[in-house]
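Exercise 3.2. Students should predict the tertiary structure of the chain below and write it as structure tokens, then compare their answer with the key that follows.

Predict this chain's 3D structure.
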Amino acid sequence: MTKKTLDPLDLFDVRGLLDEQERLVQESVGRMVDEKVIPIIAKAFAEHRFPRELVRELGSLGLLGSSLEGYGCAGMNAVSSGLICQELERGDSAMRSFVSVQSSLCMYPIHAFGSETQKQRYLPSMARGETIGCFGLTEPHGGSDPANMKTHARRRGGDWVINGSKMWITNAPIADVCIAWAMTDEGVRGFLVDKGTRGFSAAEIHDKFSLRASATGALYFDEVVVPEENRLPGAAGLKGPLSCLTQARYGIAWGAIGAAQACLAQLIEYTKTRVLFGRPLAATQLIQVRLAEMARQITSAQLLALQLGRLKDRGELSPVQVSLAKWNNVRAALDIARDCRDMLGGSGISVEYAPIRHMLNLESVVTYEGTESIHQLSVGRELTGLSAF
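Answer key:
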């Protein structure tokens, strides 16, 4: 029997468990990342610039709102949408973050909770990348407690008047429309606020040391008047925004795998060619043990994500399962990126090598969309039936 050569980034042949359409999606997105993202992303990261020139291409490939049906969306299955995130984050977390926000946090709530008029108005142009969205939930003092929402909206005749602010909002400086969540006398409600609406403004956050290739900002609402027809009619209470976060966290669980794979791939090549004390680094036991540990963590994350996707496609997904996957996979990717940075020695702090960029990005990914502790407590509550929040 001829020994099969294993893919070092896919030791359990997870790709072999995909159907033809899923493999095609992964290959096409992977090719785009190799040809369009990787050649420019280190420079974009160094310059603190989001590569907006790639947005239309993301739309042309059907990557925006990929799992939604109708309205110009591709209608892919959950595993395909996860693979999209994995390949994009192999390039950079900023690319996956943009698609996650556009798809899961903006297009999804319009599709799930919006009126037919709202869907027709926004979704087709968002799917093409012509209209960019942002998700206004996080507040300066809110963080892990979205119920502690200070932004409020009050009725005034047939309109709503919104006051408040949001912080750490991906896409805020470049967004054409904001999905803004505000407290009302009837509980939390969602509103579509268009760029240019009087009293609504966005300010870019500068000097970040993480997600530097992502456009991040703060949102301000000063007596912002929006008509009743801009309220998402199907969204009532925190269940609306939290369901959006579940969609985004699902993508993150896949995306982190791509970041880890990018780091491991570069380390394998580097340790084979770096010669110290008369032999390649890769020929030493210490290096091989560390590389093997990375492969173990990546393989576990791949299998977990695939099962998560199959559950989602069957309509059997639980938010707790998403919490476990996000927690496990991002932690694994961050540990791998940190170890790869260390193994590169002095070169590890250069943007010429991917691990420092992925490591810095993952410091944000491990925090946003629910911190690691929040996900641990979600799993703990499921195990015990008791809330420790």
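Discussion points: The chain has a mean pLDDT of 96. Residues 239-384 form a domain with the Butyryl-CoA Dehydrogenase, subunit A; domain 3 fold (CATH 1.20.140.10).
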